[in-house]
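Give me C-alpha cells for this 171-residue protein.
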Amino acid sequence: MARERFAGPDMLDDLRRFFADLIDDKKPQDQFAENDYRRAAAALLVHIATLDGELTEVKRRKLHTILEREFALDAAATDALIAEAAADDREAVDFYHFTSLLMRTLDEAGRLHIVEMLWEMVYADGKVSEFEANVMWRVADLLAVSSRDRIALRERVAAAAGSGDAGEGAA
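Here you go.
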C-alpha cells in the first residue's frame, strides 16, 4: 500500500517536470526567484503605487496592466508577482536591493524602460505628488538614468496619459 503512494503516476509526472525544468532551465511563469529582475521591477512599481496610501483600484488595474504587458504574464502569474513584490517592498529598507539587481541584470535601454514603466505607474491617477517625484528622482539616480532622460521619459508618459502635469517640479 505504501509502495503505491510513492510509485504512482503523479510521482513520475512530478519527476519528469522537475528534470525538464532543470534541463530547460525554465520555471513556470508564476514562480519568481528573489534574483529575478521582474520581481525587483514589480517591487518598485508596487512602492510607487502605494506611496499615497493604499493601493486604489485604479492603480491596482494599472499595475496589473503594466506587468502583464511588459513581462508577457497571464493574470494568475501577474497576481503571484504582485504578491511577492508587495512582500519584498514591505521588507525593504531602501531601494538599493531592487536597483542593484536591475543594474546587474539590465543594460541602459532596459533601465530606461523600467523608469518609463515607473512613470506610467505614477501617472495612473493623473497627477504626480511630491513624494512620487522624489522617489522617481532617487530610483532613476540609482539606475544611472540621467536627469535629462528621466525628464524626457516623464514628459513622454505624461503626454501619452493626457496629463498636463509634465513639468519637472521636484522630479
